[in-house]
Each structure stands twice: as C-alpha cells, then as structure tokens.
Amino acid sequence: MHEDRLFPADPGERSIARRLYAEVAGLPIVSPHGHTDPAWFAYDEPFPNPAELLVVPDHYVLRMLYSQGVRLEELGVPRLDGTTVEGGPVEGDPRRIWRTVAEHWHAFRATPSRLWWEHALAEVFGVTERLTPQSADAIYDRIADCLSKPEFRPRALFERFGIEALATTEGALDPLEHHKAIRESGWQGRVVTTFRPDTVVDPDTPGFVANLEELGRITGEDTFTWRGYLAALAARRRDFMAAGATATDHGHPTAFTADLPPAEAEVLFNRVAAGRPGPQDAELFRGQMLTEMARMSLEDGLVMQLHSGVRRGHNAWMQRVFGANRGDDIPTRSEFVDNLRPLLDRFGNEPGLTLILFTLDETTYSRELAPLAGHYPALRLGPPWWFHDSPEGMWRYRQRITETAGFYNTVGFNDDTRAFPSIPARHDVARRVDCAFLARLVAEHRIDEDEALEVATDLAYRLAKQAYRL
Amino acid sequence: MHEDRLFPADPGERSIARRLYAEVAGLPIVSPHGHTDPAWFAYDEPFPNPAELLVVPDHYVLRMLYSQGVRLEELGVPRLDGTTVEGGPVEGDPRRIWRTVAEHWHAFRATPSRLWWEHALAEVFGVTERLTPQSADAIYDRIADCLSKPEFRPRALFERFGIEALATTEGALDPLEHHKAIRESGWQGRVVTTFRPDTVVDPDTPGFVANLEELGRITGEDTFTWRGYLAALAARRRDFMAAGATATDHGHPTAFTADLPPAEAEVLFNRVAAGRPGPQDAELFRGQMLTEMARMSLEDGLVMQLHSGVRRGHNAWMQRVFGANRGDDIPTRSEFVDNLRPLLDRFGNEPGLTLILFTLDETTYSRELAPLAGHYPALRLGPPWWFHDSPEGMWRYRQRITETAGFYNTVGFNDDTRAFPSIPARHDVARRVDCAFLARLVAEHRIDEDEALEVATDLAYRLAKQAYRL
Amino acid sequence: MHEDRLFPADPGERSIARRLYAEVAGLPIVSPHGHTDPAWFAYDEPFPNPAELLVVPDHYVLRMLYSQGVRLEELGVPRLDGTTVEGGPVEGDPRRIWRTVAEHWHAFRATPSRLWWEHALAEVFGVTERLTPQSADAIYDRIADCLSKPEFRPRALFERFGIEALATTEGALDPLEHHKAIRESGWQGRVVTTFRPDTVVDPDTPGFVANLEELGRITGEDTFTWRGYLAALAARRRDFMAAGATATDHGHPTAFTADLPPAEAEVLFNRVAAGRPGPQDAELFRGQMLTEMARMSLEDGLVMQLHSGVRRGHNAWMQRVFGANRGDDIPTRSEFVDNLRPLLDRFGNEPGLTLILFTLDETTYSRELAPLAGHYPALRLGPPWWFHDSPEGMWRYRQRITETAGFYNTVGFNDDTRAFPSIPARHDVARRVDCAFLARLVAEHRIDEDEALEVATDLAYRLAKQAYRL
Question: Pathway, per Swiss-Prot/TrEMBL (chains A, B, C) (predicted)?
Fold first, then answer.
C-alpha cells in the first residue's frame, strides 16, 4: 500500500493532503451505521477461514464475480433448496473459493472492493504481495494462520482498529441477546444497536401480519390497534435505547412521506394490519410511519436515518434460488422534494430532530439534497452510500454538495459494512479522499489550511459523533 | 484574497490561467440579468448598515444559518404578523446580527457565499482579516464607517465596479418610476429594466384576476378579452423598452410550452381570466403564454429568458410566518425536450429570436440543453444559475455543455443578484473559473492559447452584450 | 497536432500516460459498430471532394453551423422537394461550402468535431495549418488533390488506418449486395455487416406493413403469421451472418422490454401486422421483440446491441423540409432498471448471451447501468455514445462506471461513425483518454502501472474483439 494512495498527483496539492491526513489518520473510528454481527463481539470466537471471512458474505465481491461468469456455487454460496447443479456441487473447500477470486482479481481493478481488500490484507494480515493465481495459496495460508491466533479474534481486532463506538443494525423483533451478552461480558468495547423497524412498518414485507403479532407478544401491547401498535413501537425503541441505540434506520423503496389526520391513519392501519391493503396502501403506510417515527424521535431523542431508492432483489431467479443480498439490488431514480414535504411540513423546522438522508441517485445531490439540507434545521446528509462509497463517489459527493450545504450539514463517514476487516480500510479511504478534496480547496485558495485541518478532523471524527449523539 | 484563487494547482495550467485572466480581469462588467433595486441608483442614498446591506436581504446567507439552527429572528428578519417569539424579539441591533454571522462563519467554508463576501469585504471595504467572532466588531465598524462616506453610495460604487450596463427586473405592473428617475437625473450610468410578466401570465399567482384588472388600468386595454390582454402585454413591453429593457424574463415552474389554435387559446384565457381555471389550465396557459411571448419577441426584438424548475416556498411554515425568498426554494427535476417542443416547432428555426434557457437540474446540461442549443438557432444557454453559480457548478456547466454546444451557444455570465456589493465578486469568480477551464484545454492541447484568449474575452464581456442586445 | 494532446497537465501523470499510450497507439483498429458505407469498400471509387467527404454527411457539423444561424442550403444540403428558398438556391460549389465552415470554425472550439477534423486533416491529408477563412482555399486544394490519388481511395485508407475489422450496419431488408461484392472482389479487408431490424420490428416505422411484406418476399416466409415472421427474422439473421455479421443492433425509443406468453405475443403481432395497433401496442411489441431477439441470439450467437433513449427528428420543420439525420435528434431521460427486467428475468443469467447497452442519459451510468452490468452475466456496457463520444464524456463514463462495473464489464471502443476519415481520429481520442484516466489511477496509487498497461491494451483492442466475437 503506497503511503500517498488516493492523494492528488500534483506535488503541491499532495503535500497539503499529506499534512492534513497526518493529523486525522490516527483518530479513533466512530462507526455509527453498519451491519457487522454483534455475536462476534459477544462471544469473541475466531473467524473460520479466509473465504468465509472475506468472500462468502461480501455481496460486492459476489456480484462482480457473478457478472464475469463465475457461478455462485463456485464461491461457496449454497442454493436455498440445497440442490446441486450442472457443473457440480457447492464448493466446500475455502481454499478453492479463494483461488477463484484470485483468478478473477483483474476484474476488481479500480474498484473500492480492491482498495478495501488490499488494505485489510496488508494492514490486518501483513500480506504485501499482490493477489494472483500464483500467490493465492500463500496468502490464503498466511490469513488462515492469523485467524487461528487470539489477536485476530473480533474483540482484539476491534481494539486494534481503534474503534471508539460501533453501531450494528437490528430489526424491530430482534431479542438483542448478543448486545445483552456484550454488556454482561464486562468487555469495554462500545458496540450499540440501531432500531430498524422495516419488517413491522412495511406492509409489503412477507409475513407482515405475523410480524405484528410477534411485536405484540414481545411488548405486551395489542398491536392490532393503531394506539397499541404505536405504543409497541415506542416500547421497542426504549428497549433498543437500553441496548445503546442512539439512532433508528429506515430502508424504504422511496422517500415518500405522509402526514394523515389521526383518524385516517388509524383506518389505513386497520386495513394493512388486517392483511387487506388497497393498491396504494403499502406506500402510504410506509410514508405515514416515517412521520410517526420522526414524532417519536423528537420525543425520545433517537436520530433518524433514511436509506431509500433501491430495487431489492432485481434478479428474480437469484432471489428464488439463492435468496437476498447476493448483489442484485439495483438503485432507482429518487425524488426528495415532494416526497419529504409532508414530514418536513410537520417537523422540518425542529432543530431537536435529526433526519439523516442517504441516496443512491447522485443526481439528487446538487438538485435536491443539498438545497434541502442547506435550509431545514432537521435535515443532515449521510455520506455517499453503497455503490458510491468509493473514491470517485466521494469526490462527486463533496463537489456537488459542499457549495450549497457546506460541510456542516453533513455527518462524516459511515462504513455501512458487513465485512468487519474492511472497517479501517473504509474509514481510511474516506479520510484520504476528504483530505485530498480539502487539499485542492487549499491549493486553489478557496479555504485556508488551518480551516481545512479543522474540517478534516470534523469529517473524520467529530461530526459523526455529534450527529449520532454518540 | 490570494491573487491565484480558483486557478488550478498545476503550475503549467496555473500560468496559462494567469495570462488569460490578466486580459479579462479589467473588462467592464455587463450585468444583463439581476435583481438589484433601481431605487438605489435613482436616489443614491447611503446603504444603512453592514447587516442590512449584507445579511438581511441575502437568502443564501439566511438559509445556511437557518439550516444550522439559527432562528431568522436572530438575523433581523421580522415575522409577517409582527409578533415576537419564544427566545426573544426580532434582533434590531445590526451589530449583533453581524456577530451571529461571524459565529457561524465556518458553515460557509467552500461555499460561494464565502467567496463573494470575502471579495466584497476585501475589494470594496478594504477588510483583510478573516471574519471571526473576535474580528467581527472591528470589521463591522470598518464597513459602517465606509457606508457613511459618499464614495460608498450606490452610483459611486456602480462606477467604481466598472459596470457598463446593469439590468434590473420589474414585474409587468411596475410603474418603472425609479428607472424614470434615473433617466431624468442626468446620471450617466446605464441601468435598464427587464420585463417580467409572471404575475399577469401565471393564473396560480395570488390575486391574478386583480392583476389583470390593474394591467387594464395601466394600459387602457380591455384585459378581460384575449385580444385586449395581448395588446396590453405588447403595450407594457413597449413601456419597458422605453425604460431601456432589451429582454423579458419568465419564471415558470416548468419549461412546458403550448401552441394552441387561436380560438382554443381564447377559450382558455376566458376561463383563467374569469378566475375559473380547470385543473390543467394554469400550466397550459403559462405554456401558451411563453409561445405568445416568443411571438412578440420576434416582433419587438426583446430577448427572452426562461428560468424554470424550482419549487418556490417549499417550507409552508416559513412562508406563512416570514414570507417569500427566505431560502426555502428548492429545485426540481426538469424536462426540456418535450416541454419546449411546441414553442420550438413554431419559432425554433428563427435566427431573429433569442430564447435563453436556465436550469437548476444539471442532468439536463448534457442530455437536453446542449443538444437543443447545439441545433436550434433560436436557443442559447444561460450561465449556471443560483445554486450552481459557484466554482464547481461552473466547471460542471462548461464540462457538460461545451463539447456539444460549444462556447458560442452560451451567453457569458449573469450575476442574478440582489446583493449589490457582490456584483464584482461574482463576475470575478466567473472570469477566473472560465480562465481556469480554458487553461486546462490549452494545457491539454485541445485549443491554442490565442483562441483561448479570444474565448475568455467573449465569455467575460462580448457574448453577454451581444446575446442581450445591450 | 501536439503529441501530448488530451494527456493530463501534471508532469507525473503525463509521463505515465505517455508510456501507456506508446504501447497502444499502434494497435490495429477494431471497429465493431458504425455506419460507414460498404459500397466504398466494394467498388473503391474515389471520394468526390472535401465538402462531400467531410461536411455534407456529418450531422455533428451541420447542427453546430445551423445553431449559429447558417442555413443548411449554404452547406449543400438540398430540400427534399428540390425547391430553393429566400436567400438563394442550394450551394453547389463545394469550395464555397468549405469556406462557410472555415468562417464558423471558432464555434467548434473544444468540441470533438474539431479534434476529429484536425486529426483527419493532419494525419490523413498532411494539413498542418489551422483552418481559417484565410487558409480555407489552400487546405481545400490540398485535400482535393489528395482525393484524386489512388492512395486516398477507400481500400487504401482502410489499410493505412490499420483496420483489422470494420462492421457496417444494414437494415433487415437490405440485399447486402455491397458486402457480397466485397467478398467476391478478393480484397482481404475484413468488412462485416450488422443486423439492424428496426424497420421490421417497430410498428411506428412508416411503411411497417409493407416492410413485413417485403420481408416475406425476401425470405419466402409468411410474415403475416407470428411463426412465419419469427422464422423470417431468423432467416435474415443467417443471411447477415453469411455476410460476416457477429452482432445485431437495435435502435429503440426506450429500453422497454416485455416477455409475453406466446399466445399473447401472437395476438399482439396480429394487431400490429394488420396495421391496427392499439395505443400501447407499438411500445409493447418493440419490447417483446427485444426479448425474442435475445432468444435468437442465444441460439445463433449474434451479440446484441441496444441503442435507446433519443427523440429522433425533434425539429418538425427540418424533418419535413430536409429529412432525417440533420442534427435534430435530441436525447431523453432513460430508464433501465424496470425496463430491462422482463428480458433479464428470462435471459439475464445466461453467460452465453451478450447484450451491450448504450445510453445518452449519463445519469444512468452510476445509478443503473454499472450496477446492472456489475451483476448480470449477460450484460456489458458499450462505450460513451454520440454526444458523449468526447474527451469529457469519456472521463465521465470511466469515472462513474468503473468503480461499480470495473473495466471488464465494458467492451472497449466503437467509433459509430458515418465519417470514414474520422475513424483513426476517434479511436485515437479514446485511446488517449483511457490512457489519461489510467495514468491518474496509477499516479494516485490506485492500480499499478503494469496492470494499467494490460487494461489499456484491453480497452484499445482486446475487449472489443472479444465482446463482439470478432
């Protein structure tokens, strides 16, 4: 890993970027949004092998290899029904999976997956060679060897990574037992949960009515009345706060919001709770629930995150045969100006609310999101998300958002990852790109270097802590 | 202010940019579109104080501070109903308003507001320190002191700024008395008006029918007949031309145009003039009127500007409590290909018509606007507008438009400002960014430096004069 | 032509770009998609004169000059009805047409047309002066002189350009006689056809029913039955393969696809074949036919190209008076995520199918196309198309696509041109810009230089050959 990676080539800009980065490179990691598994930290068991750690759960890696003609079975992904297929059974040898990745490693050139892998291999496992079919076995052996040692267990890595706080994400019906186990273990690492109620607020969720029933069972509320349902959600929010949560997260197909009169909301709820939604009811109910969640956030102080605008499971065959999160979620066009208006009409002027917006439609950066966040006190902009969590994606984000919304209506970086060893890599990429962006502003005399240094620190550390109330 | 600000960091590019800029920095300012107050030039009274000059009327500044949790009352903006609110009354001390800005000055880092302020403070008022809570009082005093001197009155500044021509914008019902006063004063500064008929062509305007009545009163036409209404508009255009106007300006929600048969247009007019528009009538009538205005432009020679694609007054509470133009106008997705077709079918092939298009939806630059302007003789593209009137915004504009439309289907720069002291700053930013863009083309051997110099001059001066017939 | 044109200004990046370019500059040209005339290569007759070679057929040049107020008649473009017009008859003197271009040459500054012309003038005809009104006659004479020599005939130029394979595009009803003549001539140049069935699959085509009749006549099938129609298309595909075709090409208004049950498809076909399509039938039928074509491609191995998202003939007057392809085709907003789903549900997981997507809506690069191509094995992304086949357009394409789809889900370069002398210029621009893009990645330590060199070669040569099975 070159020490100047991701810095501008111009020597003047590069030297400024180096100076800025030197000040932020070692700051603690605040990871306020992500999808790591709390069980890792609760029980601190060793990770099984390189393929199961780095390949099988990483949908970025799966999708790229699949697009190049590699079958998921060759990558160790089993079919839901357990059958094998023409071409052989599911690959069970992690070393062979690893070799398949190495054979197609060129496909990842200039992708963030490559940056994250190389950082993890070099910084976490001390691998300095490039991954090739020739080097694959030796690298596999080295990582496998590391994984057998105590200093590569989850808690040791957490501490070595310098993580000050890490948020996982759990559904509204989650028993939060791993978080309980973490707290009871006496380990000092700060791992908190995040309240993600999608499966009990989205009537399109398979099993939605059963989910309501389960929500009632957990909370002791009558979740088939509007009042009881809202009380149950408020109760679960309290449970999550007891497990450290400072935020909620909402994954919706669109940013549509609604603010119905209470009686209409109740009638709508009664239709969806009875499993008899009308054609527009699911979207309307999701929209209404975002506004209800904003109301509850004003009451209990949880920060609200909205991740919208993705067509989940675009590949029907893959969904059927392999299930969700295999790399076939595709972004869609998004709209915030009309969609958020009902919620903003109700709560947009409240400085006590923080609603953090994420998008996969970069056209909304300069047209909608920056103007909205540059006006409403309740709005903040999350970092570039998913496909755009990459050097070019980060540049586009800063270039299109900063002039209208400034730096201080954004909230620093979220790694949003399921891949634990990639956390330091992802934060490092963000810190480097922000320093590179700021270096250009300094070199072009658009801000002074002392100001850039303050901004770099805020983007790397302080803004995330502050926005997420961590 | 660093003399190389906004120039590329690469030394080779920078030296080309410097050479180009040296030739255009001192050219006169042609300001063919903006929102300064003609009364300033008519009566030449001193500006009251730094806050009322630079803060209270600047919706860019208001919105950023509001987004960061500052109440508008703290910035001296009164509620429409005169009430005070929790947290105290409206701030009446301009010095305290100034201090509030200074306390939040970091929020403006890397925004164009910051560039404009610093330019105005340095070049107009000789302030060389950075604005901070510590320096706020001294800077306030210096500006206040300047404002008391004759050389800081509007006409003196107009001359010092090197303004060759300045267009203000007045509504169709404006008596144009300030423009009359300017002409009668014997002062030689060229300040002209622009005909903006929105309130008499947009049936969604509150008081639309009363406006038609007033239009009839002013012109002596029967504005409740289609023929009389059109005659009244033609008459008002002549009045505006007598006050120096060379252009009209149209602020529409969309770029929709229509070209109805005359009898249908008349029937439509009768519905809207009676205050009984059908559900689609307002949009249809606005669209028809753009085509009627194009027809009149071909007759009387006024250049036509279209500013479309913004949701005015997105924040209902703010509109109700504080009124319009407080920073809550939000851009929307725009469409030009189908929307402009009726007007273009009628007049797009007329080299005698000039229709200048502006957009807040940057996705239309390369997809719609450059291809349209690169074909129709009647179309020209206005400079990056409002949120995009910024260094990055200008780069995006040139990068996405030039390869399809060239430089010569664009019309130079418009400052579009209400903030008089920012005029030189805004033109300076545009000149610097255009020189930086051209320097890159020269450095990459895409055009020669002698050509770049000609283009730089055209963009800074000649194209605006020519396109607006000034 | 400067040897470093289009390379970054930074000396470090530039030296990397030079090294990469040195390795790919001389690679053979693979031109798998374009619109040159096979008759040129069949009969090898001299090109008539500079204006008819470089101006009259080039709609890029026509539209820019027209936008600047030049009438098409002045450029030698006749009216369809043969009439002359106010301002004089159609210009018949190619030298005067040439002079008109020279007088407006400044309008092309920083456009790709200018790059292509200068390359052709310098590299093909040895012209080293800039085109100006003063130099126009001498340059005209030099080119005219060249055109009279045998080494400037089509086949000699083909060989001099280093073209390894060139695909033209012919409609489904084309007799392919020129391709037959090429093969029978014994000349060794590889010129192949491409099957473009738009006029027999798009019910909105004027004369669609007559086209079906003609398709029946050519193939001996009953093209007024669904079964016979499909058999006729399959037969024509075989004919095209016999003339060297390795690909089909589909120009559709949108990327809409459908996958109807066979019985419904047949009923739909019966309505359109009878000339009585319902209001949505044309779009539905086009969409169904894309899926049918994908099915046939899986059978016969032809690669499939989809060019969608353009409003052809936007200028009604120009269409009526001058006809098609005069520079008034305007891109529109495009959508791929929902539109392609029916086809992808059916065939997206087939590694044996290659569907190459092109777009004029750059907002789809990072939002839709890269995520789709980064997942589905059947999808590949074509190079930046038409308005975006330009240095800035190519940068945007690589910057927005690579991080999600990598380089290896793209297919290298297509020149897509009707202007034969511009072929080397266009490939040279693409090679230079790709090397510049790769040089930046190397300079920022995002990939290593040996990898960049491999990618540069793949983008310049290997990927096109492989994707198009040439």
Answer: Carbohydrate metabolism; pentose and glucuronate interconversion
Is some CB atom of chain A closer than 8 A to the CB atom of B445?
Answer: no
Q: Cβ distance B286 to B343 under 8 Å?
A: no
| Predicted ipTM of the assembly | 0.97
Which chains form contacts with chain C, at 3 or more CB pairs under 8 Å? A, B
Q: Which of B426, B436, B432 is nearest to B117 (CA)?
A: B426
**Residue A22 contacts residue A120 (beta carbons within 8 Å):** no
Instruction: Give strand pairing partners of C308.
Output: C252
Q: Do C9 and B443 touch (CB under 8 A)?
A: yes
Closest Cβ–Cβ partner in B67, B115, B391 for A373: B67
What class does CATH assign to B47-152? Answer: mainly alpha
Q: What is the pLDDT of residues C151-172, one digit of tens each?
A: 999 999 999 999 999 999 999 9
Name the residue ranges covered by the structural domains of chain A.
Answer: 11-47+161-467, 48-152
What is the SS3 assignment for A301?
coil
Query: Distance from B363 to chain A by nearest Cα, in Å?
Result: 7
Whole-angstrom Cα distance, residue A274 to residue A287? 18
Do C363 and A363 make contact, defined as CB atoms within 8 angstroms? Answer: yes
Amino acid code (one letter) for B303:
V
Q: Which residue of A has its CA nearest to C407?
A: A107
Q: What's B153's DSSP letter?
A: S
Query: CB-hemisphere CA count at 13 Å for A32?
Result: 26
CA distance B443 to chain C (A): 6
By three-state DSSP, how is residue C224 classified?
Answer: coil
List of chain B residues whose C-beta atoms are within 8 Å of the C-beta of residue C360: 367
Q: What angle do CA C419, C421, C426 make, to 5 degrees?
A: 80
Rounded-to-integer distance, Cα B11 and Cα C318, Å: 48
Per residue in C333-386, pLDDT tens? 999 999 999 999 999 999 999 999 999 999 999 999 999 999 999 999 999 999
CATH number of A48-152: 1.10.2020.10
From chain A residues 13-52, the ones with a CB under 8 A of any chain B CB are 13
From the list B4, B67, B130, the residue facing A409 with the nearest CB is B67
CA distance B142 to C224: 87
Place of tokens 């044996």: C352
Q: Give me the CATH topology for the region B11-46+154-467.
A: TIM Barrel (3.20.20)
Residue C129 at interface with chain B, using a CB cutoff of 8 Å: no
For chains B and C, CB pairs below 8 A equal 131
CATH architecture of C46-152: Orthogonal Bundle (1.10)
Interface contact A109-C447, CB threshold 8 A: yes
pLDDT by 10s per residue, chain C, length 470: 899 999 999 999 999 999 999 999 999 999 999 999 999 999 999 999 999 999 988 999 999 999 999 999 999 998 998 877 666 778 889 999 999 999 999 999 999 999 999 999 999 999 999 999 999 999 999 999 999 999 999 999 999 999 999 999 999 999 999 999 999 999 999 999 999 999 999 999 999 999 999 999 999 999 999 999 999 999 999 999 999 999 999 999 999 999 999 999 999 999 999 999 999 999 999 999 999 999 999 999 999 999 999 999 999 999 999 998 889 999 999 999 999 999 999 999 999 999 999 999 999 999 999 999 999 999 999 999 999 999 999 999 999 999 999 999 999 999 999 999 999 999 999 999 999 999 999 999 999 999 999 999 999 999 999 999 99
- Tell me which chain C residues have a C-beta less than 8 angstroms from the C-beta of B355: none
CATH dotted code for C11-44+153-467 = 3.20.20.140
To the question of domain A11-47+161-467 being in CATH 3.40.50.1970, the answer is: no
Cβ atoms B366, B342 nearer than 8 A: no
DSSP 3-state assignment of C30? strand
Inter-residue contact A455 to A449 (CB < 8 Å): no
